[in-house]
């Protein structure tokens, strides 16, 4: 029966006493409100080293089909709950990576189970429509109820897509189309435009560019990859476009202690942006759009100030380039606001905002002017998946009902204070603690040290991710409470105590 | 209750007498076996012109959010059954387009409902994993049971992806990586490779190319789009790569009546392919791979002979280029074989075969040599969606159990005979009937005539798609039986009789 899993979940123990495993400077949590925890476990519980024997056997099996070099372990998703990921060997880990930041409200949330057991939803799963030609009856309503209810300031339009890369690819295309329509004075394309585009040549396929930043990650399909500059392994051997790449500010943390130095660094980068826009215009490859993450995530959790982004947005406007804010990793609440760019305090923050991951569906919001002028210009077979919109609606309900953005802010403060304490205690190992909400990171001395900390934490029941050259990134779900932060910090403390 | 829809479906009338609406040269169907029809309707039933008033109101609503220029009407997917698509105004149409060829076994097939109501499957829908790092326990088994059970000859490896474009983008990347590894003699990349790739420059981002064909469609993200040459509206204003584009044979139909002329045309195109490979090598942009559809679908249902593909495959091998067969539209059974390229009779047909659409998940099969040498080279957050693999397993079970490939062959023969009869009867309107299985097409005299036929057929209860400049494409589900063909042909006959 479909309801048995749900029943079983709801029956899980409500006890939440934090088990304190070892003496030392430990965080002891007060009992939290039970909203999240009603369906989850109370602590990690490790039975083998990871990957355990069952994972190893499955790795061998899958190795005959795929390259398995990136796989950590195999999961028992059915037994996973809330913030706890259970593997096939019965190890239960506090998940601070959440499928590369893409699980918004934890595993097997009852609200999502309800979506599955509602008979009105069945046909959305079984009959995947070609949304661009034959949308389902409830499609406009579902867009209003889900995505448009969280539309960034100034945006009333949204286009769904299947994944983050497709979202950015199509956002880029929208910017190119918009830019060329402006150049043509919104007249029809010429015969030469139409003929030359069929054979990949200018003017039909114009030499336009997208300006991106060193350290950026915008996806891995060929268009996106030309704006991605975080790790060589992503880009090596893949043909690319000659598009301008600006330096992203290398700030000193904590930001509030280095305001003057950081402002200088940001000014340097902005100057370079303007130079590059002019250079590429002279090269005959004008910048149709600027794409940027509010926090460079994959590239090492690099922050910049609201002032930087405000000035960058103005540079884009001044030079007639569209401004695309890529919120694929930052969007959906983890910074304590629904969109990270809301922290900038701008009324008019962007022309395009793309999303995926925690939003469960890919896509992008955009301003009216960025809407394609004709059908079939932004198009593909599926253009998203309405079954994902159903889940997103429920996720948004849970975020509102349980005030999860406030939760994120509170947990984020505890996490940051804990990270600051750790780096004071282990200054030869840790540095540059930084974050917004629970979207946090800290640097280890070397990449080897970083990898060792992550490995040891995993075997003590905390699953973490890495980013940049030597950063640990924290990407918990929005239901990550103060006592989960304490569990995380206690394990980090144990790992570092051994490391010392 | 989840089972109510299922119960309601199973209770639907078993009557299948074809309603003959008008006198003339009509096809009268014998009663068919009931396997398919147990859950579907018996005939189209139109209540309004299309789009009807409800669709028009929804178009207005959605128009405030998206460009709706490509939308035909809004659908009631819950009420749709088997080969019949029901719209929001209660119009029931025989669906010969199937969401751009992506509904394998019709709407609301009981086997797919069963997937949804199996509690063991719930967590696959609710907890979408990052497959590349944390796959579910049953992932290797499900791959073996679903995708690998239909792996093309010589291929034991498969990589899932979210959609057709992502599949081809990553297939291209695999070919580039493979090609560069060969060039480097399988040694490590140089410091220069690693440094230059981060800023989009050669040698790290090498000037490699993919050879494609005029009329091809391989997707719409920037890499794929550089190999797509079917319609200007897809490509206009989007920057592209200077990659070689060969002519695809323009054959005369029926193929068997023009073997000599067609062989000459194919030889001309193959000669051009070899010329282009040499030219692009001289340009410093060697051809890492050749990509081709077994039947150019979007581009107008252009066929070529097995001999052409065999020779092309040999040219690829001779020049050290990978050979990528794009089966996104042709794969999954519609040609009467599971993969269209099986019609070529080759033991060694391809290095990569990509799929999506009727396979419900995107992805590609490949030969061992095309496996990336390191993790994270072919990678993204989701790398597919295991819930789609669950549906695919059931689809494959139904295809086997109900011998649907034989059904496709039988229905395809009836369809082709019917199309030949129509073009004999209306030689001033129709020409070039062609097809394999039910993957068929016919040309109208002009694009306006084609569009008018499709519109009139829609209002008589048959939903068709277009392709190329003036072709009607037939893309029914695999459960399209002889009596469905008769319904289709009768409506076409009525439309053409009025047109005369």
TrEMBL record, chains A, B:
EC number from the UniProt entry: 2.6.1.19, 2.6.1.22
Xref: InterPro entries: 4NH2But_aminotransferase_euk, Aminotrans_3, Aminotrans_3_PPA_site, PyrdxlP-dep_Trfase, PyrdxlP-dep_Trfase_major, PyrdxlP-dep_Trfase_small
GO cellular component: mitochondrion
Xref: Pfam families: Aminotran_3
Alphabetical keyword list: Aminotransferase, Neurotransmitter degradation, Pyridoxal phosphate, Transferase
Top-rank taxon, per record: Eukaryota
Reactions this protein catalyses: 4-aminobutanoate + 2-oxoglutarate = succinate semialdehyde + L-glutamate; (S)-3-amino-2-methylpropanoate + 2-oxoglutarate = 2-methyl-3-oxopropanoate + L-glutamate
First-level EC class: transferase
Molecular function per GO: (S)-3-amino-2-methylpropionate transaminase activity; 4-aminobutyrate:2-oxoglutarate transaminase activity; pyridoxal phosphate binding
Cofactor: pyridoxal 5'-phosphate
GO terms, biological process: gamma-aminobutyric acid catabolic process
Family, similarity comment: Belongs to the class-III pyridoxal-phosphate-dependent aminotransferase family.
Description of how the protein assembles with itself and partners: Homodimer; disulfide-linked.
Role this protein plays: Catalyzes the conversion of gamma-aminobutyrate and L-beta-aminoisobutyrate to succinate semialdehyde and methylmalonate semialdehyde, respectively. Can also convert delta-aminovalerate and beta-alanine.
Protein name: 4-aminobutyrate aminotransferase, mitochondrial
Organism: Danionella cerebrum
């Amino acid at each position: 029966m479909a309801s048995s899993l749900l029943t079983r979940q709801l029956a899980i123990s409500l006890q939440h006493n934090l088990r304190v495993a070892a003496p030392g400077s430990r965080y002891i949590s007060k009992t939290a409100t039970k909203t999240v925890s009603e369906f989850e476990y109370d602590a990690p519980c490790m039975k083998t080293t990871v990957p355990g024997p069952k994972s190893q056997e499955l790795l061998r099996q899958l190795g005959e089909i795929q390259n398995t070099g990136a796989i950590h372990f195999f999961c028992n998703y059915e037994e996973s709950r809330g913030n706890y990921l259970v593997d096939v060997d019965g190890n239960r880990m506090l998940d601070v990576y959440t499928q590369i930041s893409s699980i918004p409200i934890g595993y097997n949330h009852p609200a999502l189970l309800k979506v599955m057991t509602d008979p009105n939803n069945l046909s959305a799963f079984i009959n995947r429509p070609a949304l661009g030609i034959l949308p389902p009856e409830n499609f406009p309503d579902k867009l209003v109820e889900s995505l448009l209810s969280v539309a960034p300031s100034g945006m009333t339009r949204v286009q769904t897509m299947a994944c983050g890369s497709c979202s950015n690819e199509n956002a880029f295309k929208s910017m190119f189309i918009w830019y060329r329509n402006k150049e043509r004075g919104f007249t029809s394309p010429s015969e030469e435009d139409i003929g030359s585009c069929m054979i990949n040549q200018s003017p039909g396929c114009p030499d336009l560019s997208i300006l991106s930043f060193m350290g950026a990650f915008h996806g891995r399909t060929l268009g996106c990859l030309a704006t991605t500059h975080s790790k060589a392994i992503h880009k090596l051997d893949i043909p690319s476009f000659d598009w301008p790449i600006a330096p992203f500010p290398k700030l000193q943390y904590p930001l509030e202690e280095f305001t003057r130095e950081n402002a200088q660094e940001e000014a340097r980068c902005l100057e370079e942006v303007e130079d590059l826009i002019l250079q590429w215009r002279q090269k005959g490859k004008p910048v149709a759009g600027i794409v940027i993450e509010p926090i460079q995530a994959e590239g090492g959790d690099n922050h910049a100030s609201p002032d930087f982004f405000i000035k960058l947005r103005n540079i884009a406007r001044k030079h007639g380039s569209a401004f695309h804010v890529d919120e694929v990793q930052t969007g959906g609440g983890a910074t304590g606001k629904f969109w990270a760019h809301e922290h900038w305090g701008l009324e008019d923050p962007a022309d395009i905002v793309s999303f995926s991951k925690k939003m469960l569906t890919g896509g992008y919001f955009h301003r009216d002017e960025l809407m394609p002028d004709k059908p079939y210009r932004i198009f593909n077979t599926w253009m998203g998946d309405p079954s994902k919109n159903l889940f997103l609606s429920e996720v948004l309900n849970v975020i509102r009902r349980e005030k999860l953005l406030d939760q994120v802010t509170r947990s984020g403060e505890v996490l940051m204070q804990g990270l600051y304490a750790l780096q004071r205690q282990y200054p030869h190992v840790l540095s540059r603690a930084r974050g917004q909400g629970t979207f946090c990171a800290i640097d280890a001395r070397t990449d080897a040290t970083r990898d060792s900390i992550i490995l040891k934490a995993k075997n003590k029941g905390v699953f973490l991710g890495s980013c940049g050259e030597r950063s640990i990134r924290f990407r918990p779900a929005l239901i990550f409470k103060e006592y989960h932060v304490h569990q995380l910090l206690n394990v980090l403390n144990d790992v570092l105590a051994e490391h010392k």
